[in-house]
Specification:
CATH topology of the largest domain: Uridine Diphospho-n-acetylenolpyruvylglucosamine Reductase, domain 3
Radius of gyration: 19 Å
Bound molecules: flavin-adenine dinucleotide
Structural class: alpha+beta
Oligomer: single chain
Shape: globular
Largest sheet: 6 strands, antiparallel
Number of domains: 3
Distance between the termini: 19 Å
CATH class of the largest domain: Alpha Beta
Number of helices: 6
């Protein structure tokens, strides 16, 4: 999974499956269910850390499924987009059409499906903002349309459970001056470049904020910026990023996560919870 996750760590999985369209995806889900195999969905792998031993499971990677259908709806435009579509590419496309609603999420490196599962957000915007509904497949391969209000969105959370797949999503976007949209995207990119250690592999923010305060404040307060375990390092640029300085293993990343949680609690009293998902670390 080193090759398929942005942290660039992790061992092999039993099967890596690439459905080539939405129908194929549903067939794969039914087939895995019939065979009684455990499986997970993977988008761009930018929010997961997989154990060095790997997983005795199938991983269904959605990234070959890219479809977007634009329909005029009154003064706005409805866009139905596949869950496997890269968020960055999707936002570039909508911006190019002068459509606004997602531009402040520009450069989040995940897919639409991963973004919806995590309710990805940045610079005061959330993917759930302009969302109307989600086509969700259950573990029997049957699909249901779920409206935004029933998606259970919260801070980095949604009702999407393991085994359920975001097949596609329907967004409602409005027209805005294209130059203004592009200016927002440039601003967002500039801020990310200045604040995030983009030069190293990482999984983005490791911990969720605590009571509205960003996690990096607690990590800095505990004096942990720059500490290393093997090749895993707390970024000097942004304390809520663990970066792979070149040779990190998933085990080292996990040890560093545990150390940060322990020391932040001892020194500040704050309990940090992971925003990243750890796959295969139990038992
Ligand atoms: C440099 C960097 C910066 C980042 N900045 C931000 C940021 O500003 N804001 C933010 O919110 N996040 C940020 N992230 C984290 C990450 O990009 C987001 O959480 C993103 O939405 C994850 O999408 P993904 O496709 O990579 O999901 P993955 O990492 O592949 O998967 C994450 C979870 O979603 C599930 N999943 C993936 N696809 C589907 C699907 N189609 N259906 C159902 N479940 C699915 C997986 O099973 C897993 O549970 C950043 C990450 C990096 C590396």
């Amino acid at each position: 999974m080193k090759r398929y996750t942005s942290m660039k760590v992790g061992g092999p999985v039993k099967y890596l499956v690439y459905p080539h369209d939405e129908e194929d995806l549903l067939r794969v889900i039914r087939m895995l269910g019939d065979k009684g195999m455990t499986y997970r969905f993977l988008g761009n792998g930018t929010n997961v850390i997989v154990n060095d031993r790997g997983l005795n499971e199938a991983v269904v990677r959605t990234t070959r499924i890219k479809r977007a259908r634009y329909t005029k709806t009154g003064d706005d435009v409805s866009v139905e987009v596949s869950g496997g579509t890269s968020l960055k590419a999707f936002i570039r496309d909508t911006a190019g059409r002068g459509l606004s609603g997602l531009e402040r999420l520009f450069w989040i490196p995940g897919t639409v499906g991963g973004g919806i599962k995590m309710n990805a957000g940045s610079f005061g915007s959330w993917i759930s903002g302009p969302l109307e509904s989600v086509c969700l497949a259950g573990s029997n391969g049957e699909t249901t349309s779920i409206t935004k209000n029933d998606m259970g969105f919260g801070y980095r959370t949604s009702r999407v459970r393991p085994g359920e797949c975001v097949v596609s999503a329907l967004f409602r976007l409005s027209y805005r001056n294209k130059d203004e949209i592009l200016r927002d995207m440039d601003y967002v990119y500039g801020q990310r470049k200045a604040r995030h250690p983009m030069e190293y592999p990482s999984a983005g923010s490791v911990f969720k904020g605590v009571d509205g305060e960003p996690a990096w404040k607690f990590i800095e307060k505990a004096g942990l910026k720059g500490i290393k375990i093997g090749g895993a390092m707390v970024s000097e640029k942004h304390a809520n990023f663990i970066v792979n300085s070149g040779t990190a293993t998933a085990g080292e990343v996990k040890l560093l996560i545990d150390k940060i949680k322990r020391e932040v609690f001892e020194k500040t009293g704050a309990s940090l919870n992971e925003e990243v998902e750890l796959w295969g670390f139990n038992g």
